[in-house]
Amino acid sequence: MRTENLKKWRKELINCTQCGFCKEVCPVFEEIEWDSSAARGRMSLCYGLYCGDIEPDGSVMERLYQCTTCTDCTRRCPSSTAVVDVVEAARKDIVAAGLANEGQKRIAGSIKRFGNPFEETQSREEMLGEAPRQAEIAYYTGCTAAYRNIETAKAGISILKKLNADYTLLDEVCCGSVLSRLGFPDEDIETQVDTNLKAIEATGAKTVLFSCAGCLRMFKKEYPKFRKLPFRVLHFTEWLNEQDITLQPYEKTVTYHDPCHIGRHLGIYEPPRTMIQKIPKVNFVEMKDNREMARCCGGGGGVRSGFPEVAGKIAARRMEQAMIADILVTTCPFCVNNLKMGRDIAQSKVEVRDLLEVIDELLDL
Prior knowledge:
- The structure is a single chain.
- The protein has helices at residues 4-7, 10-13, 27-32, 39-51, 58-64, 72-76, 83-96, 102-114, 124-128, 143-147, 150-162, 177-182, 186-203, 213-222, 236-240, 270-277, 303-306, 308-321, 333-346, 355-362, and strands at 137-140, 167-168, 207-210, 232-235, 253-257, 283-284, 327-330, 351-354.
- The strands form 2 sheets. It has a 4-stranded parallel β-sheet with strand order 2-1-3-4, with helices on both faces.
- By secondary structure, the chain is of the alpha/beta class.
- The relative contact order is 0.12.
- The protein has 3 domains: 4-96, no CATH class; 104-240, Rossmann fold (3-Layer(aba) Sandwich), CATH 3.40.50; 253-362, Rossmann fold, CATH 3.40.50.
- The model has no long low-confidence stretch (mean pLDDT 97).
- It has 20 helices and 8 strands.
- α4 (39-51) packs across α7.
C-alpha cells in the first residue's frame, strides 16, 4: 500500500511518545481494552504502515476505523499529537489502495448518486416543502436532519418563521463530512463543496445556519481548504444568541451533551448553554464530564455504521452520566440518534432531544 497521505504527517507519527495518557480518555479503548484500540496503538499501526513494516489487513483496518475522531486524545496528549489527522490520512491511503469495504463504497456511491448517504431519492425540497429563494439567511439542514431527524429540521424552520427571519432552505447535497471521515479522496469532497457553495451563492445569503455539528465543522474547517466562503457560518444556537427572544417556562432538570465536532473541534461551548439558561424556571445541571472534557457519544468517525455495538456501549456510558437530569439536550442530530441507542442499552428514563426542538416549543410568538 502506498502511503502518500501518511507521509504528510511524518512529524506527527514520530511525535507520539507512547506515554499512554490517551488510554485514560479514549472512548473506544474503554470498551475494547486492547492497546491497539487507543490513540497510541493507532499511531503505532500508522507508523508501521508508513514504514512498510505491516500490511493493512483486516485487523489493522478494524482498529483504524474504530476511531470516533473525537480528538479527546489530542487534548490529553502531552505532545498535542494530531492523532485524528494521522488516522484520517491512513484511511485515505487505505481507500486509495482500493481496500474500502462494501459498506463504505455504498455510502460513497449514494452520496455521488443521490446527494445523501442514505440512498434517499427525494430532494430536500420534497422532504421539507420549501424551495430555495433569495434571502439573507440560508438554513443548511444536513442529511441526518432532512432524512432521519426531520423534526429537528422542522424546528429550525419553525424558529426562523416565528422570528420573521428572511430565510431560505437550500438545494443542498451532503456536506462531504462522511467522505472525509472515511478516507475518500479530496476530489470527491471538492465536488460536494462546489455544489453546496453554488447553491448558497444562488440565494445571495450572507449567513448560513447549521443544526448539525458535523456539517458546521466541515464548512468551518475543511471547506476553506478548497474555496473562500463569502458568507458567515454559524451554529443555530450562535445565531439565536444574537436574537431578542422570549421563552416560556420549562420546569424540568436539563443537562447538555457537547458534540465533539462543535466542542473540541470548534470550541463552541457557551452558546448552547446560554440558550438553555435563558429558559425561565429551567434547572440546568452539568454532567461530570463537560465542555472540552465531554465524553464522546460514540457515533462519530463512521463507528456507528461500522461498529454499532461499540458505538452503543459508549453512548450508554454517556447516558449513565446524564441520569442527573430529566432531559439531555444536544446540538447535533447524529448525537441525538446515538445517545438514544445508548439510553435504551442503559435502560435510562432520561429523554434525549435536540435543543432546537425544545427552543421551538418554548418560543413565544
